Each structure stands twice: as C-alpha cells, then as structure tokens.
Amino acid sequence: MKKLLLAGVFKPFGVSDEYGEALCTMELLNNQVTREQGVHSPRSNNPSFGLYIMAENIEVPTTVLDFPSWEEFTKEVREGNYTHIGLSFIAPNVIKAKRMAEYVRKQSPSAIIILGGHGTSIPNVTEIVTCDEVCRGEGVTWMRRYFGENVDKPVLHPVVHSAVKKFVYGAPIISEAGIIITGVGCQNTCRFCATTHKFDKQYTAFLSTGEDVFNACVKTGAALKVSDFALMDENFGKSPRRARELLENMERNGRAFTFSTFSSAETIGKLGIDFLVRLGVKFLWIGVESKANLFDKTKGIDLNVLIADLQNHGITVLASAILFLEHHDKETIHEDIDWAISLESDLLQFMQFGPIPGTRLYKDYDEEGKLLKDIPWPRQHGQDEIWFVHPSFTLKETAEYTKQAFIKKYHTHGPGVINMAHTYLKGYLTMKRLIEDNEKKGMAWDSKTLKYVKAGSPKPDEFLKLRLEAMRQSALEFRPILKSAELYAPNLESAQKARMIAQKFDETFGKKTFMENVMSVAVRALAFVEYIRSQNGVVMRQPPTIRHTWPDRKGKVPQASSENRWVRQREHTPATTTTADV
Ligand code: B12
Ligand code: SF4
Predict the structure, then answer these.
(1) Which listed site, 441, 507, 532, 581, has its alpha carbon 20 to 30 Å from 13?
(2) The domain boundary residue, chosen from 417, 446, 463
C-alpha cells in the first residue's frame, strides 16, 4: 500500500546557522516589502501552496507537513510508514533538503525520495540531495503520472488560507483570506525569471475557466468563511476570457469577492482599470523593474500615471524593482532607486538581479564565468549579498545598497500600511462618486467593451454597491492602526500623513465608534510591546506547523498548530545560533 509524505523544509527560518540565513525568512512583507519598517511591518506566513494542490489531486493517501520543526519531521518519518517522501524546496533551502533526505535514507531506507520545487533547478541537485526521483516542473501532472493515475482528470482546488499567523503592530487583526491557485508559469520569458523558466515558458492553468475560479472561491469561501482571496498566478489578467467569465459569474450570483494578485503593467493597460475594480482587484503586485524600461512588459507605459490611477480606484500597488542590473553603476543605481520610489506605490519591493538556476540569466552568467560558485546556496536569496560578479559593486556594498533602498522608501513615504489605508479610502470615495455619476447620467456596465456606457433604461447597479461595501470594509480594517502609525512614525512628514489620513477617515465615516476606539487602544498597547521587543533587532515569529492528511481529512481545512515560537533575529548571527523562545 503506497503512502506519501509531502514536506516543506524544516524551521527555523531567518536564523543564521548552517542551514539558513538571517535575511531568508518565511515572510513576504516583513522581509521583502516592508523591510526596515520595524513595528509598522505587517507579519504573516504563506503556506507552501504546491504541497496542498498536489495532495488534493492524487489518490495515494498523502500527508502534508508544512513548516515542520526538525523533531516533527523526523517523528513523522519514523512513525508514518511512508513508502514515498516528497521534499519541496527552493534553492536557498537545498541544504535543509539534503539533511532531510539523508535522515530518510538512514531511518527509512526503503522509502522513495522525490524532490520537487524551484530548488530542483540547481544543476547538480542530485549530487547534493540524495534522492530517487526528481520532478523539475509542474507537480500535479508529474505525481499523477508517477503513481499511474489519470493525468487528464480536472484539477480539484484545495481549501487553504493564503496566509497564517497574521499580525500588524503585534495585533492579530488582519482579516482572513483564501488562496486560489489559478495556474503556474508565464509565457513572457523574462531572462531573469525563475517561474517562466521552471514551467518551460508555458502557462499551465489549474482553473481554466472563470467558472472554475468562481467555484473554487465559493468552496474556499464557505470553508474559511471568507470572501477575500489571493490569486496565485503570475499574470492572472493575461487570460482576459477567464477574468471576464469570473466577473460574469460573480455578477450572476451576486457574490462580490475581492482579490489580490500579480499583473504585468501591459496586461493592466489592456484590461482597463474600470474592469479590474469591478472584478474586485484590491491589491496588485506589478514588476516595474527599472527606469531603463528593459522589459517588454513595461515598454511605452507611463507607470506613474498607471499606479496613481490604480490607487485612486482603491487598488493597493506593490511595485517591485530590481537592483544590480547590468547597467547599474554607483550613479545609475541611485537613479533607479529614486525612480522606483517616485512611482509612489503603496509598497515597494527591491529584489536583486540574481541569476537563479534554470534561468537564461544563470546560463549566460555561467558561460561568462560571472557566477561566484563558492557562495553557499543558503546565501543566494536576494536580500543580502549578490552571488555573481558585478563590475560596479563589491558583495558587501550590495547588501548595504539593498538595505538602504528600503530605508529610503520608508523615510520618503512612511509606513506601507498608512499608504494602503489611504488607497482604500480613496477607492471608497471614487466608487461612491462613480455610483452617483452613473445613476445621474444613466450609465451601465457593458461587459463587451468593459466600460460604463449610456444605457437605454439603466437599473440601479446592485453589484457596484456590493463593491462599495467591500471597499468600505477594506478601508475600515485599517482604522485601528492609524494612531499607532502616527506614534511610531519615522519622521514628522509620516506622522502628519497618518494624522491627515485619520482625519479623512473621520470626514468620510464619521467619528470612531466605541468598538473602533477600543480596538485602536488595544492596538496601541500591543504596538508598544512589539516596539520594545523589536529594539534589539527584528522579532521573528516562526511559521506554525501545518499537518493535514488526505483522503481522511479531505475537504477539511488544514489547520496551523497554535504553537507560537518567537526568535529574535540578529544581523549575521554566528553559525551556532539556535532558536530561543522569548
Ligand atoms: C509564495 C512564495 C513565497 C512565500 C513562502 C511560501 C512557502 N511556504 O515557501 C514567501 C513570501 C514567504 C516567500 C519567501 C521567499 N521566497 Co518565495 N516565492 C513564492 C512564490 C511567489 C509562489 C510560490 C508558490 O506557491 N507557487 C504556486 C505553487 C503551486 O507552485 P510551486 O511552489 O512552484 O509548486 C509546483 C512545482 O514547483 C512542483 N513542486 C513543488 N514542490 C514539489 C515537491 C514535490 C515532491 C513534487 C513532485 C513537485 C513539487 O509542483 C507544484 C505544483 O505544480 C514564488 C514565485 C512563483 N510565482 O512561483 C516565489 C519563489 C519560490 N521564492 C523565491 C525566493 C528566492 C524566496 C526568498 C528566498 C526571498 C527572500 N530573500 O526572502 C524567501 C525564502 C523563504 C524561505 N526561508 O524558505 C524564489 C525561489 C528561487 C530559487 N532560487 O529557488 C521564487 C521562485 C521567486 C523568484 N525569485 O522568482 N516566497
Ligand atoms: S512577466 Fe513576470 S512572471 Fe512573466 S516572465 Fe516576466 S517576470 Fe516572470
């Protein structure tokens, strides 16, 4: 009888030891986006989505073990009687995968070890990690084929939270959302991009129609009691038919779900902002990359105008820029950092131009002898020092430039959370005006042109009213944090900005209710504790262990353990550092 364990690599994350690095944490916002924003940085962990979608779609009894401690992983291997053990890892975690595979070999020699995930693009991965099988691309089809199951069956969507253990200012007040994994890969073939190369420059849809996406939202929404979702897709709008169908399904059923997703700038232009707003997009991650406009996806687009327009319509923008591009020297890199900041996105990620195994860039740099191959894999993660020869920067300089870029954004525009609060408030006001204007002028939504057009006998736009209510809720979610944002602001301008936004909230929604006041005071108390804790370095929460089994718990929601381990992160902590409960 076959029995499969699918495991992510073991924690702790973000600790400098022989397996990991301080700046390689399991957090998106705190580590890569609102980095250096201290107490203002929202905290959360994203489950390893690939594990769940594979488990949901194979018939072999499967256990998913996400974010295990070393003890939890070894216990599972010892006691689980698994015939197959799948390890999922990215390149910086390959040494963790190596230790796990070696343990399996010793403890359970007959178990078949399968490797998967981005780490499998490492050229000599099988020499580093002992294994029997390697899945280098999409895992659902690979697993079905490997176990002799029907590869053509439709993909069932698992029910999973998009993030767990969510805090802001130390307060667990961020609302829940589900993950919808619509597909993997991208056809845009950017030279540096890991995902386009990993999936053979092709897009593989798990949910190919708008109805499929809608049904997945309904299922996850009912199980998690949410109506907000992260759409895990490199470029959801790249398939306009599916996006249109999704909107049609929501309108037909009177369900105004909201979405956070990724999109290239060219795709946004093609779909139009009115459509995105009606679709319920509230958060967009856009790769702006560089002022030099090196990539087709941003050519000919005025990003300043685009981003401001999105924000005015209530769409929070996370822009992503690249540092240490080939043309960067000590002058042009500042120009690019300043340009990226001048876009005034709510949030700004700076990532390094890192040659990632499997990409065209990696191949080119390898051929040109630019890869620094003696830099250990755990250090190749994109937030500390680069791992290739750059003519204008030493390795130490790259770490410092990256850090300073985040600090500059923070000091220029203040905490990301107040920018988000402002965007949602602006969106609410724009939506309110739009509804009034449409009613006055007799305009109605035209699903063919994706525009509001003059209509013969327009009816009240009930769907837009649902959208207005969702925007109101998105904005109000931020109200309790505004005072803390002001109190811990990095400078006078940010404090003033927080005050100005709080005032606009009062003007728009009236004075705070009793409950809102209570929450605001509670957040202030928790923010104070968080602030004190963070004085010696970043306070890091380890992701909770999630263990879920199929088929016996199929359809049930994978639950995070209640364990709450804290680790104080020090810069360049010595290799002996272990986790310590604080
Ligand atoms: C969500 C995400 C995160 C989450 C964490 C998720 C998690 N629990 O690990 C957060 C935001 C915390 C994060 C952090 C980081 N991330 Co990240 N992340 C992603 C992202 C955006 C999506 C991953 C995902 O869920 N995809 C959807 C699922 C369905 O696809 P998948 O994971 O690839 O799985 C499929 C296949 O790979 C395969 N598969 C996967 N595992 C297995 C296992 C087996 C046995 C088999 C058979 C198949 C298989 O089957 C799956 C289904 O098809 C990707 C980019 C992307 N778009 O993929 C980057 C990405 C994976 N991250 C990357 C990096 C570099 C990081 C950081 C190092 C950044 C940093 N400095 O902070 C940290 C490292 C965190 C850590 N300590 O491990 C790189 C990895 C590149 C590499 N060299 O390997 C990517 C590719 C982004 C990039 N640069 O292009 N990340
Ligand atoms: S558009 Fe984005 S996801 Fe697509 S190849 Fe370029 S960087 Fe990768």
Answers:
(1) 532
(2) 417
